[in-house]
Amino acid sequence: MRKPLIAGNWKMYKTPKESLAFLERFLPLVATHTRDEIALFPTMSSLGYVIEATHGTNVSAGAQTMHWLNEGPYTGQTSPTMLASIHCTHVLLGHSERRIYANETDEMVNLKLKAAIGHGLVPIVCVGETLEKRQSNLTEAVLRWQIANALNGVEAEGSEALVIAYEPIWAIGTGSTATPTQVSEAHRIIRREIAERLGQERANQTRILYGGSVKPENTAMLMAQPEIDGALVGGASLDPDTFARIVCYAS
How far is CA 213 from CA 42, 49, 72, 165, 251, in A? Predict the structure, then answer.
């Protein structure tokens, strides 16, 4: 039984003060929610504040990215040891915006995944195809390539916390949501590739989230699909009332 995970990626929004104001409103709305795991991914400047404010609640806090090395002369980077030291629990890896704007490669995602596993962080590896690739019937090839590279050298033992987020790039922030059929098929492709790399048992246990214009109006429909184990929410996670409705699958 895979416990669903509903995650909110705040991207480059919210100061520490704004983050705390969000939590003051949001936490009471989901305080009794136990069906799903809930995680928020604030900016690095707000992460420590969010971790402290959510301590002892049913909401976790994660980082939007990290470096794979523990330390070094890498200006602007944050290491896995630094995240672990402030009790960060989750980390996003390979988000399409990181791949596009920060030139993050499949090799980097692989290194980061191994580092996250080694430091006890819950890694959420993001994969997804462009509209051009989908229209060229290359969705399966892209997803298999990204998963195969991310899991290169990763062992089944120790990767129990692995989470994959399928985010078709053509649906992120566009208002266009993949249909439940499209998402389910993509998730089956991903799960088959995980099985080839880590074995069927690990594949059956791995949660695969969907991200791409998730909103209260379509969450219940998406979550009704057996292959969808949660959602990685972008813009709709910035408002506490809206995100609470998504967590509760309430339109």
Answer: 18, 27, 37, 13, 14
Active site residues: 95, 167
Q: How far is CA 214 from CA 74, 173, 210, 232, 243, in A?
A: 34, 9, 8, 8, 10
Domain boundaries, the chain: 5-247
* Averaged pLDDT, 92-112: 96
* CA count, 13 A, side-chain hemisphere, 122: 20
User: For residue 251, is pLDDT > 90?
Assistant: no
> Residue 211: CA atoms inside 13 Å, Cβ hemisphere, count?
31
**Dist CA 187 CA 203 (whole Å):** 11
pTM to 2 decimal places? 0.96
78 in helix, strand or coil? coil
Supply the CATH classification number for the domain 5-247. 3.20.20.70
Taking the CB of residue 13, how many other CB atoms lie within 10 A of it?
16
